[in-house]
Every structure is written in structure tokens, then in C-alpha cells.
Protein 1
Amino acid sequence: MIFFGSRSKTVTGQVVEGINCPNCENQQFITYGLIKYFHLYWIPTLITSKTVGIECTHCKKNMVNNELPEHLSKEIKTALFTKKQVLPMFSGLIIIACLVVFGVYTAQKNSANELTYIEQPAVHDLYIVNLTKIFDDTDPEYKYGIMRITHLKSGQAEFQVSRIAYNKRSGARKDIRTGKASSEAYYDDSGSLYIDIDKLKDMKEAGAINSIKRLE
């Protein structure tokens, strides 16, 4: 569940004088600012509005925005809405930007690694594959599986094919992550699949190979 919504933060300023309160004619006011912001998982993400006002120290009468002299409104905004107060209100946006940059970096790194894995395959490499692009008798609803390299010889890679097929790639990724795909019993023992190493790159580009995991 995603928790989001709007909240507000009040910033208290200094006491100003020289303005008559329309309610009690007192001339002392406390300045304040109200920052409304959108939050995601309670993390301030984006400022939606900034309001300034003054409160009479005697009768608590409030005057905000257009009720204030323009020069005073600008002075209060400058004094209260400093970088120290405003920047934390964009924390969520900064976090999201960092996650996007990290995601792009990770994707590029994985892509570079997979190119190396294809050009220099190793025994026990795990391939998440689209079975419909490799075998003719595959159920199109459960088209994802895992193939594991068992031997490399004479320009060919020998693969075992998983007994299990998935309707989503996430199922295959989970079995790799949990170690299930490292078990011998996970693979069909009726025969191996032999593929020329120089054809692996073409299979990746055609979508037959989705991703490669090299076990450390």
C-alpha cells in the first residue's frame, strides 16, 4: 500500500512592529510561514504552496498574504523560506531522483556484464529464457524458464533446461535468488540442449535470452 497525501509545516519568525491591528490596535505581531507539501510514505516530496502571515501578540488576530503590505510579505518570505526550511520539503523528490539514477546505472552495468557473459560463457551460468522462442511445443501462457550451462566444449555450450515454466520472469528470478535454481533436481534430466556460443548474442537480441546470472 502506498501512503501519500498533503501535510503542512509552520515556521515561526520574528516579532515585527509598526502595523496597527484592525481588531485591537496593538502594534506587535509574530511573523509565521505555512508550507504545504505533498508527502509519499510521510516523506516530504513536493511543496504545493507557501503562505506568510502575522499574528497579533495581544488578540491573536491573523493577517495573511494579500492582507499584508507587499514589502512586508516579501521580507517575511525571504526571512522564513530559507534553503534550510525549503530543501527538506523536497526530500522525497531527491530520493526518487537518486533511485532513478541508480536504476539506470544498474541496468547499464547489468547490460555490460551480460554482454561479457555471452561472449565468455562459464559453467553454471543461469539464463532466464523465453521458451517459446527456443522450443516449438511450449505453452505460451508459461513461456519463461531457466537454462543452466553444464559444459563448454568446441565452441558450444551445453545447457540443462528447468522442469518448471513461469508466466512471469519474476518467478524465474525468485528461484535464482533463493537458490532453488542451483539444485540438480530443478532441471530436466531427459537430455541436454547444445547451442553454438557465437549464436548466444543473436538469441539475446531476438529476446530468446532475457537475462543472465553468473553465480559468484
Protein 2
Amino acid sequence: MNYLKSHITLILSLISILISIFMFRTFDNILKLYEQNIVNNYSIVVVSDSIINNLDIPQIKKIEKIDIKEQISALQQKYPNINFKNIKLPYFYNLKLNYLPSPNELKNLKNSLLNKPFIKRVLTHSTSQTKIYNLLMLLKSITKTFMFITAILGTLLIIKQLEVWKLLHSERMYIMELFGAPFWIKGAALFKIAIIDSFIAIIITLGLIYFITNSIIFESIINELNINFKINYLQEFGILFIVSFAISLISSIIVVMSKK
């Protein structure tokens, strides 16, 4: 019974690490897609006295002229006594950016635009943009911190469990050491246990991942964010496979080579 509990402890530790890594990668990819979606829909409005073709500012990806014919027609109907055709109106432009700028970057960008003599006004919607940016950065920090904490605690738990198994096989390992056996033969029992449990952990983790990513809740969240997010299960399997076996083997080597 204790032997079975030991296996379950190691498997659950690996699963928690693999799940945290997968969730971090998935959440990071979702945030990147959502951030790009925000960038595509976000723009800075500038009012200029002259036509703008190029601003020589690296953050600006695209310059789009705003057609104000409808607004002029509405004003003409509202004020029929004024001939707006004889009034020289400024030019309005939407500036599309390459990425979502930080509040400081946005402030510097606004100042750079206002330094242009022909630009009279800049609308950055900085309040809403700052809130979105800070929220995205907070979510990234939380997921990264959670992944590292889970990985560290899980790895320490795996090492402790392998040390218990080392004590159970200590007599056989001691005899092998007396005969000059290399460490990979001396610790063959631990390596075998670690590899088997790693394989079991990967299978269970992939099952959980498939269940989570195909759930109604997960799909509804993706639809609400309005992003095109697809999971490459083969790629995720490869990454988790490498991580799982690397953690198990490295933990086993540390335990076998330790003098406790």
C-alpha cells in the first residue's frame, strides 16, 4: 500500500508540473493573440493641418485617412446657412501600431507626434489602453509565478520521494557500488521507476488537457475573446514528454549521486 502511495505521489507531482507548464504556455499564447487583436482594433487619432504620408516613427505600422464626408453632410443639414465646402478643415488620421505600447511608451509616442508642427491634436484613449495593458501584464506575471512555484515544489517533492525509494534499495545499491558499478547501473531501479511514472503522468496529463480544451467553458472563453486559438496537440505532447522525462531523470541522477 505504501509502495502504491509512493507511485501516486510521484505521478501527481509530475502531473501538477506538466499541467502548470501547459496552462502557462496556453495562457501566454491566448494573451498574445488577444493582445494582437487589441492592437488591430486600437488606433491613435491625429488631427493635422496637412496631408500625412509618413511620420518616420517606428512604432507606427499604418496610417489610415479618416473620411469625414458623412460628418460634413450631417453638419450641412444641421446648419444649412453655412457652406462647409468653403471652410478649410483639418485632416484626420488613424495611426495603427506594431504592438501594444506601455503607458510610458504611449506617452512618449504622443509627445513625438505633438512635436510635429503640422499635427495639432492627438487622441490616444490612454485611460482605457493603460487599463488593458496593466491587466495583461498582471495576468502574465501571475501565470509565470504560478508555473515556477508549482515546478519548484513539484520537483522537490519528486526528489524527496526518490530519496525514499533510494533507502528501500540502499542495500542493493551499496553492493553494486562495492563492485564498482557505474551510477546508471547502481540507480537502475530508480531510473526505471521514474521513467514508468513519467509515462503514466504524461498519458493522464494529455487526457486532462484534451478534456479541458474541448470543454464548453474553454470554448466559450475563446469565443468571447474573439481570437483564433488552436492547440497543436502533437507539439504539446513533445514538449511535455521532454519536460517530464528530463525532470524525472535529473531528479533520479541527483538522488543517486547524493551521499545521503
Protein 3
Amino acid sequence: MQSFKEAFSRHLRHPSTGPVGWLVKHILVRTNRYLEKEAARLLGIQPHDRVLEVGFGPGLGLQYALEHIGGDGRGKVYRLEISPEMIHSATKRLHRHIASGKLHLTLGNVMNLPYPDNSMDRIFHVNCYYFWDDLDQGCKELNRVLSPGGAMITTMDYKTLKLSIKRDLNAYADKYDPYAYMKSLEQTGFTGVRMEHLKDGVKDFEAIFACKE
């Protein structure tokens, strides 16, 4: 059982192939869908926006962000993913948007974002900041690529997160404290940092907002 828990935790942090990877992927699809949808909605995406999703999962938020962008606007959606398997999965599902030039997928790490300064208008991520090697460095990079006047949001289910850690199913989520994350946001130049406890139908979740002046 302990070896399964370790493998499950490892795939949560860095999704890959194999039976445990398949299980984690399907659990993420089921549990993250509403969080991805709410993040895209709360971000207030406009048709001309350049939107970045920083991800550690199936990339469900890409579809919602693309719906807000639409097909006629100048906006584009970018996805940074640490897992080649998740890049492959998103590429198969959203190949039409990639071919149209509206969607760009990149393999990389939030510690060193492969985007120019001030190149994104909106940024969102779901259930991933607590896996970053260095919170301050990750937040510093996100602030660097966000344009002045831009906004960022992360959504999470804090209750479920704490339960997964208690059950030893999320051993690598060692920076899960949202207040530590919010402190890093403020220290690296974000303003208007706040957390709201919200509800999507019957599901409770948390959203952390930040912007760049």
C-alpha cells in the first residue's frame, strides 16, 4: 500500500504513463474540471487576451479559456506543462486549436518561463503551486511575464487537498499553505492579493486573486 501511495503522489506531481498514471489522470479530470472552469470564468478573459495556463494535469482549462477567446478575436491561449504525457494528451484533444494558431503548448517549468516580459494578459493555474520547487521564484517568473494591468488566479479545493495529504496520497505537496503562497505573491510584486471561499453549485472551493499594476 505504501508503494502505491508513493507512486500516486509522484504522478500527482509529475503525471506520466502506466497504470497509476492512468488512474491519476482520470481522477484529475473528474476532480479538477469545475476548478478549471471557474478559474477561466473568474479571470474575465476577453477575446483579445493572451492567456497562460500553468499546469500539472490534463489541461481542461484550455478548452474553457479557448471558449472565452473565441475564434474571431486576436487572443491566444498558452499552456506550460512539466509533463510530456499531459502535453501529448492535450495535443490530441485540442489539435484543431493548435492548427489554427489559437493554442500553443510548451514543455517547461514555472521556475524559468519561456515567455518574454509582459507577454501575458491573464494567467491561471489549478492545484499546482504547492509542487513548485521555490514559491518565490515561481511567483517572480509569473509576475515577469504578466503585463501591467493583467490578472492572475488560482483555484483549489483546500479541504480535499488537506485530506489527500493526511492520507499520504499527496506527499510532494509540501507547500500547500495558501497563505505562504499569497505572501510570495506580494513579495514578488503582485498587488490586490486576496483569497475568496466560493461555491460552484454544491462544491466549495477557494480562489486566490492577484494582479500587476
Protein 4
Amino acid sequence: MTQQQRLNELLELVSERGNVSIAEIGEALAISAATARRDLATLADQRLVTRTHGGASALGSGYELPLQYKIARQAEAKVRIAKAAAALVSVSDSVGLNGGTTTSEVARELGRSDRLVRSDGDFGVTIVTNALNIAYELSVRAHVKIVVTGGVSRRQSYELVGPLVSNSLQEMALDVAILGVDGLSVRFGATTLHEGEADVSQQFGRVAKKVVVVADSTKMERTTFARICPLDQLDVLVTDLPVPPELAKALGAAGVEIIIAP
């Protein structure tokens, strides 16, 4: 196991339990106490956990992990979700993608899809994004036309935010917006951790004919700080496991199609 893999698993452990001791870390990750202390020191220096006497505790629920630490979380589920979401895109569609690990997987699926390559050599799909990492990855795909919004970059997520994003998007009409979220609940609908990113997602939703949320099961019945939209402003939810009954009922009442990725 590499150090990055250990750090990812350690963050996952702290997030799940809230508080962990050195002994619990050693048992869960099969590492020595000395290695556990060094890894905790690394995470604490980056302000990702809080050191306690003999262990560590999670930061508040409003804290946002940097994107590189989110990549390993629910990785297999996100790939399956991405494949199912990419199947909703047709040749010549214009697609809005916000930032995040799941939408990054969707972008990869769209980028390598032979189905979206046109025989006449023209662009098979247009991707509009505020995520710098998505734009960078897709820039080498000949069948993908990339449009990047303006805005100010957020270091945590590589997303552009601010009024320049709205100025760009209000001049567009998209076939579909595929949005990653941090929470989905009956009362608050789709939410995310940062108000600037919530505003961008709202703008994507306003200019798209169809709004698709891609979210793994850990996001269900969870609420985070900034609201994107209520459930009735969504058209499709793509997830990896059956949705909890109360939320599934509310989504059905709102007319949202639920797709469970195979």
C-alpha cells in the first residue's frame, strides 16, 4: 500500500468513526503505531484531521476534502455511475459538467466513447465545464469540443466560481447538465459544501433541457451547507444502490427518474 493509499484509507476511517486511536488505526490498516503517527501528522499538517491525545478526530461536517483525497472514495461505484450517465448522452449533444470526482469519471467516459465519434469528423459532443481538470483531460479528445467558463479557481476542487461563470452560462442552451452533488435529501434537495459551487450548479440547471444528478449511495439522505435546488428541479438521478424508501418516494413524487448503475 502506498502512502497516498494509506492516507486515503485513514481519512475514510476518521470520517466514518469520528474519533480514532493509534491502536485502532494500526489494527484497521495493518500498519505500525509509528507509521500511524507519521500519517496522522501529515494529515494534521494539511488540516485534514485534528490530532487528539493518542489519535485523531474528524473536522466539522462542513469541511471539504481536497479533490485528490476524494478520488479513492467509492471509486468503483463512481465508475459504474459514470458509465450509466454517459449512456444518456447522444451524438451532437451539448453537455454541462460541474466539478467533482464523479463528474470527472463521466467526462472520461464521454472522452473515450466511440459511440460519440462522428463519421464526418465534426465534434461528436460539446462539453461545457467550470472544472479545470475536466477541461485539461478532454482537451486531447478530437471528437470533443471543450468550452470552459470564466471564473476564479478554487484550489480545493479545481472549479471556477464567481460571476464570470454566470455571465458565460447565461448565453448558452445545453441539452443536458450532469451534476455532482455532496448531498441529496427530501427536505433540501441537492446540496453541496461551497456556496460558489452551488451557484454554478444552479446556473447549469437553468440553461439545460435535462438535469441529471450523479451521486453514490453515501450522498443519499445527506445535507450539506449550500443548496443547489429542490428535487422537483431534477430529471434523473444516477446512483449505485437502491435509494432509501423515503427519499425514493419523494423523488418519484417529484417526477425524477432513478437509474441504478449496473
